[in-house]
Amino acid sequence: MDLTVIWAFIIAFAVFAYVVMDGFDLGIGILFPTFSAGRERDRAMNSIAPVWDGNETWLVLGGGGLFAAFPLAYAVILPATYPLIIAMLLGLVFRGVAFEYRWRDPAHQRFWDIAFTGGSFVAAFAQGMTLGALLQGIEVVDRAYAGSWWDWLTPYTLLTGLGTVAGYALLGSTWLIWKLDGAEQDHARKLAIWAGGATIVLMGAVSLYNIALNEEYASHWLTAPQIYWVAPVPIVTAVVSLSLLHGILNARNSKPFWLAIALFFLGMSGLGVTIWPYVVPPGLTIWDAAAPERSQIFMLVGVAVTMPLIIAYTVWAYWVFRGKVADEGYH
Predict the structure, then answer these.
(1) Tens of pLDDT along 149-165?
(2) DSSP string, 102-159
(3) Helix (H, G, I), strand (E, B) or coil at 179
C-alpha cells in the first residue's frame, strides 16, 4: 500500500467534508441580506447554531494534515497564497464573532449582520481563489515558491472564487429548504433555483477553462484511454444537475441538499482527475512533497484514532438537531 496515496485521500476527504459542512454555513451568511430582519434571519441562524463551529474542525484537519504529510507542498502553497489565506481567516473570524454577538448585542444587530455577511462572502471567495491559484500552477524553484505576491490574482482565480460563492449559496439555500417551513422555506427555494443555476454554469465554465489552461489537464480528459475512464464524470454531473433543479422545485425536505452535496462531490472528483498526481502543479507530485515514510506511519496511527471520533461526534450532533427549526433556538 502506498502511504502517500492514502494520505492524499485523507486530506481530500477532510477538504471535502469542510467544503460541504462549513459551505452551507457560509452560504447562509452570503444569502443573509436577502432574508427579512427579525424572524426569518433568526430562524436561518438557528438552523446552523448547533453545528457551525464543529464544522470548522475539518479545516484544521485538512490544513494540519497537509502540513504534516506534505510539508513541502505546505511550504510552497502558503507563500503563494498568503493574501488569500489571511483574507479567509479574517473572514471566518468576523463570521464567528458576528454569530455570537448578534444575539448578545441587539443594539448593534445590524452591524453584526453586515459582519456576518461580509465575513462569509470574503471567506468563501478567498477559498475559491486559493483553489484557482493552485490549479493554474505555482512557480517553484529549488523547492521554494519563486513567484510574486500577486501571482494568485488572475481572471481564472476570480472565476473559481465566484463559483465557490455560488456553490456555497446553493448549499446554504438547500439546507434551509430542509430545515425551515412555510414562507421561509418558499423563499429558500427561490434562492436555491438562482444559486443552483449559477453554480452549474460556473462549474461548466471552470471545467472548460481547465482544459484550455494546461495541455496536461486537457490530456487527462480528452485522450485515450483516459477519456473512457473519466467520461462518466461529466455525464453523471449533468444528470445530478437536472435532478437537483427538479428536486429544488418539488422536494420539501432534504433531497435538494443531498443532491447539492453530490454535485460538489462530482466537481471535486473532476478536479482530482484534472490535477492528479500533482499536489502543486505543474512541478510537485504528491510523492515529491511527501513527508518521510516513518512520519506518515506515525501520523496515520493518530488519524486512525481521531478521525472516527470526529465523524462520530459530527453524526451525533446532526442527529440530535435533526428536523425543522422552531421559533425558539440559540440565544
Answers:
(1) 888 889 999 999 999 99
(2) HHH-GGGHHHHHHHHHHHHHHHHHHHHHHHHHHHT---EETTEE-S-TTTT-SHHHHH
(3) helix
327/220: higher pLDDT: 220
158 neighbors 205 (Cβ within 8 angstroms): no
137's torsion region: left (phi>0), alpha (psi -120 to 50) or beta?
left
How confident is the model over 268-311, as pLDDT tens digits?
888 888 888 888 888 788 888 888 888 888 888 888 888 898 88
Burial 290-313 (b: 16+ CB within 10 A, else e): bbeeeebeebeeebeeebeebeee
Give the up-direction half-sphere exposure of residue 211: CA atoms within 13 A in the CB hemisphere: 12
Provide the residue type at 162 as one letter. Answer: L
Q: Collapsing DSSP states into helix, strand and coil, what is residue 322?
A: coil
Run of H or E residues at 222: helix 215-222
> What is the tens place of the pLDDT at every residue in 233-260?
888 989 999 999 888 888 778 889 999 9
Where does the pLDDT of residue 173 fall: very low under 50, low under 70, confident under 90, or very high at 90 and above? very high
In sequence order, what DSSP letters do the residues of 247-300 get, joined into one string? HHHH--SSHHHHHHHHHHHHHHHHHHHHHTTEEETTTEEHHHHPPPHHHHHHHH
**89: DSSP letter:** H
Work out the angle between the directed axes of helices 215-222 and 255-275 (0-180°, nearest 10). Answer: 120
Assign 325 to helix, strand or coil.
coil
Buried b (16+ CB within 10 A) or exposed e, 148-164: eeebbeeebbebbbbbb
Residue position matching grid coordinates 483516459:
226
User: Is 49 strand, coil or helix?
Assistant: coil
Distance CA 285, CA 297 (A): 19
DSSP code for 32 = G
